[in-house]
Design a protein that fits this description.
Length: about 90
């Protein structure tokens, strides 16, 4: 089985207030993740026409400049970044 690829991507995430309204500010968030690609040939495999599946696993999420954010803003930004990442994988 091949080793998973380790990659990262960056999203710009809007910072929202406690009511979920946009504050007009945003911050870059980096997500480190692994990608694993598996090709299954089934039980009657002849080595042709396998079905590929791809799986993603988040390893780490970090805000590139978190010193300017309140704790609740950090949580909101990280949660939103994870959701953006999951939606991006579809």
């Amino acid at each position: 089985m091949p080793h998973p690829l380790k990659l990262s991507t960056c999203f710009i995430v809007d910072i929202k207030d406690k009511d979920g309204c946009d504050t007009g500010r945003s911050t870059p968030v980096t997500i480190d993740y692994s990608v694993e690609i598996d090709k299954s040939y089934g039980s009657d495999a002849d080595g042709k026409n396998g079905v590929s599946s791809v799986s993603y696993e988040i390893i780490d999420v970090h805000i590139d400049n978190d010193s300017a954010l309140l704790e609740e803003e950090k949580k909101q930004v990280i949660d939103d970044a994870k959701q953006i990442f999951l939606d991006w994988q579809l």
